[in-house]
UniProtKB/TrEMBL annotation, chain A:
Species this protein is from: Paractinoplanes lichenicola
Keyword tags: Membrane, Transmembrane, Transmembrane helix
Protein name: Uncharacterized protein
Keyword Transmembrane helix applies: yes
TM segment ranges: 60-81
Taxonomy, superkingdom: Bacteria
Automatic annotation (TrEMBL), chain B:
Residue spans crossing the bilayer: none
Lineage summary: Bacteria, Bacillati, Actinomycetota, Actinomycetes, Micromonosporales
UniProt cross-references to Pfam families, sorted A to Z: Sigma70_r2
Keyword annotations from UniProtKB, A to Z: Sigma factor, Transcription, Transcription regulation
Alphabetized NCBIfam families for the sequence: sigma70-ECF
Protein name: Sigma-70 family RNA polymerase sigma factor
Family as reported in the entry's similarity comment: Belongs to the sigma-70 factor family. ECF subfamily.
Stored InterPro entries: RNA_pol_sigma-70-like (IPR039425), RNA_pol_sigma-70_dom (IPR014284), RNA_pol_sigma70_r2 (IPR007627), RNA_pol_sigma_r2 (IPR013325), RNA_pol_sigma_r3/r4-like (IPR013324), WH-like_DNA-bd_sf (IPR036388)
Keyword Ligase: no
Secreted recorded as keyword: no
Stretches assigned to the RNA polymerase sigma-70 region domain: 13-72
Length: 262, 172
């Protein structure tokens, strides 16, 4: 019996069958559905609609979904995090180099190519909302087919795109002085763990910094109301493993990630 | 798709969808989510794929995620309920200790790991279907699944020297 088969034994719904009365209620509810007005046919459904959380599930822990379980996680650090101090092999700088869209276009096109047929029109420089480089790595926010927004991460040009996940653009921009984390996590790459965070910022936010437990300040790239950063290490995968400092012209304020939506 | 076709779809998938939802939210709310899922599915029925079950699960997951957003649970839709056993039961039944270890290991995982594992182990989806539910590529899902399985093994056997992690790099 493999691990998945073992897990199946724990399924609380394994032997569940809805009662005839419950099924009858559901069938009756279905008849009401038929009386609902038909939607406008122009709006295309996609699995992006169905699963807005796709971007963060790819990562290892610790996103907002874990907030409710933070206590359990904190109880024992039960989540195994290999390489506690061995994740610093990446060529990386705490301060990013801002890239113009044209400079990040090759990476954006690689990310788009990774989507295959799901990305119909190759991106242009105008589709790049924000792009930064640290060492060899390029992180860019790229509009996909004029509608969706993807986080394109090329950690090492020799390796190709590391990610091209869809972001949720439905939520409004935070109010002045505030920021929100859309996705944060840690991923294990060839040179160890790395963390990345992508968020949105209020219109007056001039700068964001990620404070790591070892004292490192990671400067985020901020543009067009979005901000991104990445760093070697897995702090982004821990519940409140970093602090985020939001700067405006009127001052600075430090937040835990859980205060910013994760 | 006409009404009869959709009734047939409902009949064929209702129980699976209800189980999918009940794994993730309390029973009291499950019927509403299932009904809402079929409402969306009916409104999108022109785009119904050949394999409807993961498509329906994806819609339900989206509804659950949107509901959970207000509770800051926006990233993954966690599996909230796993059969647990009391210590008294464990004392009575041989082999149940191992199951308790598995339960503990399960809850030591991240919600994201639990979600990918549950899609395969509980919802009995293939990797292609599970990827459709999550809205990601199959290769990405397999990467997530492999990581989750490895972390499950780690949680079960923390002292075991496991082989080095497989390359986790993957074109997303």
């Amino acid at each position: 019996m493999n691990d998945l088969e073992q897990l199946a034994v724990l399924d609380p719904m394994r032997d569940y069958e809805p009662s005839p009365s419950r099924r009858a209620r559901a069938t009756a509810a279905l008849e009401k559905v038929f009386h609902e007005p038909a939607p406008a046919p122009s709006r295309r459904f996609s699995f992006g609609d169905a699963a807005p959380a796709r971007r963060s599930a790819r990562r290892f822990v610790l996103s907002g979904a874990v907030v409710g379980l933070a206590a359990a996680v904190a109880v024992a650090g039960m989540i195994v995090l290999p390489g506690e101090h061995g994740d610093k092999a990446y060529a990386w700088t705490a301060k990013p180099q801002a890239l113009a869209g044209a400079d990040a276009l090759p990476e954006a096109q690689r990310c788009a190519a990774g989507w295959g047929a799901d990305w119909a029109t190759p991106p242009t420089a105008a589709d790049i909302l924000l792009a930064e480089r640290r060492g060899r790595a390029t992180l860019a926010l790229v509009r996909k087919d004029g509608t969706g927004l993807t986080a394109c991460f090329v950690l090492d040009p020799a390796e190709g795109a590391a990610g091209g996940d869809l972001l949720d653009t439905a939520t409004p921009q935070p109010v002045n002085g505030r920021a929100r984390i859309e996705t944060m996590g840690a991923t294990e790459g060839k040179e160890g763990w790395y963390s990345d965070v992508i968020g949105r910022a209020g219109a007056d936010v001039t700068k964001l910094e990620i404070e790591l437990p070892d004292g490192t300040n990671v400067q985020a790239s901020v543009r067009n109301g979005w901000w991104v950063a990445w760093w070697p290490g897995h702090e982004g995968g821990k519940a409140d493993g970093v602090r985020v400092v939001v700067h405006t012209s009127s001052g600075s304020k430090s937040f835990l990630p859980s205060e910013l939506g994760v | 798709m006409d009404h009869d076709d959709f009734r047939a779809l409902h009949a064929a998938t209702y129980a699976d969808l209800l189980r999918f939802v009940k794994r993730r939210i309390p029973d009291d709310d499950a019927d509403d989510v299932v009904s809402a899922t079929f409402l969306v599915a009916w409104q999108r029925s022109a785009e119904l794929p050949e394999d409807a079950r993961p498509w329906l699960f994806g819609i339900a997951r989206n509804i659950l995620a949107n509901q959970a957003r207000s509770r800051l649970r926006r990233r993954v839709v966690d599996v909230r309920m796993v059969t647990d056993l009391s210590r008294a039961e464990a004392d009575r039944a041989p082999g149940v200790d191992a199951r308790l270890d598995l339960v503990r290991a399960w809850w030591a995982l991240s919600a994201a790991d639990r979600e990918v594992l549950a899609l395969v182990a509980f919802d009995r989806l293939t990797d292609v279907q599970a990827a459709a539910v999550l809205g990601c590529r199959r290769a990405t899902f397999r990467m997530r699944l492999n990581r989750a399985r490895r972390r499950l093994r780690d949680a079960l056997e923390p002292a075991t020297d496991l082989p080095p992690a497989v390359a986790t790099w993957s074109n997303a």
